[in-house]
């Protein structure tokens, strides 16, 4: 046995685990989604930020020349877009997204795509998916397809609805042309039938007129013979 006078902690259990201090949980801080609209634009197809001067997305290759960057729009739209991205209150962000849909045109598609893929609140992401469906732009097909893997079922459901809206509004050109040709055929059939009847009437009239001419010739011949 050891000498107790050298054991300074003889009253303590050497195998007892010391209690760790428990830190109080701190509320999660809101992470802002930052986009500088003066120097950047957001691709509506993939939802990624690129330089504002680029007319082609370097990530997905989509041609953006037909869509004006939000940075070139009026101040109101840019302020609304900043609110939709940075306000700490999810209700305010949702309302900002809804208002952007009412006031904006194709230049806001990128904001909706970015919010759909990055906002932390499912209600805000759902609203972004809803707006993309209402705009029904074919560029939004890819980002809505990505949203089908969203952890929230309400977002996935809204993404499905959006895809249906876009598909319905943007039918393939061949299908549209085929439907147009069918309609034209249906419309032209009565006209064709009427034309055929008119042609038959003309032929009958011609035949009758030829018979009349022959009769007149025969009568003239008879008169000449009598003389």
Order of helices and strands: EEHHHHHHH
How far apart are the first and last residues' alpha carbons, in Å? Answer: 173 Å
User: How many domains make up the coordinates?
Assistant: 2
DSSP summary, beta strand count: 2
Mean pLDDT: 80
Task: Give the count of helical stretches.
Answer: 7
Question: What's the topology here?
Answer:
Elements: E1 40-42, E2 49-51, H1 75-86, H2 90-103, H3 109-118, H4 122-135, H5 141-146, H6 153-169, H7 173-226
Antiparallel strand pairs: 1-2
Helix pairs in contact: 1-2, 2-4, 3-4, 4-6
Explain this structure.
The structure is a single chain. This protein has helices at 75-86, 90-103, 109-118, 122-135, 141-146, 153-169, 173-226, and strands at residues 40-42, 49-51. The chain is mostly helical. The protein folds into 2 domains: 40-169, Leucine-rich Repeat Variant, CATH 1.25.10; 172-227. Helix 4 runs parallel beside helix 6. Mean pLDDT is 80; it is low at 19-30.
Keywords:
227 residues, mainly alpha, 2 domains, elongated, 7 helices, Leucine-rich Repeat Variant
């Amino acid at each position: 046995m050891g000498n107790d006078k050298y054991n300074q902690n003889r009253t303590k259990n050497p195998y007892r685990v010391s209690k760790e201090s428990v830190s109080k949980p701190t509320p999660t801080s809101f992470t802002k989604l930052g986009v500088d609209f003066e120097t950047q634009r957001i691709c509506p197809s993939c939802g990624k930020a690129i330089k504002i001067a680029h007319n082609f997305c370097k990530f997905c290759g989509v041609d953006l020349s037909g869509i004006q960057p939000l940075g070139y729009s009026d101040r109101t739209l840019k302020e609304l877009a900043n609110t939709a991205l940075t306000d700490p209150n999810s209700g305010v962000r949702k309302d900002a997204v809804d208002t952007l849909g009412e006031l904006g045109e194709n230049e806001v598609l990128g904001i909706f795509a970015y919010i759909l893929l990055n906002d932390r609140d499912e209600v805000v992401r759902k609203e972004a998916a809803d707006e993309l469906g209402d705009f029904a732009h074919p560029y939004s097909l890819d980002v809505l397809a990505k949203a089908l893997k969203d952890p929230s079922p309400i977002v996935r459901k809204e993404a499905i609805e959006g895809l249906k809206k876009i598909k319905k509004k943007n039918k393939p050109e061949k299908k549209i042309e085929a439907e147009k040709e069918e309609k034209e055929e249906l419309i032209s059939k009565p006209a064709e039938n009427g034309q055929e009847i008119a042609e038959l009437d003309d032929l009958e009239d011609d035949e009758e007129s030829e018979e009349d001419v022959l009769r007149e010739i025969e009568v003239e011949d008879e008169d000449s013979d009598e003389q």
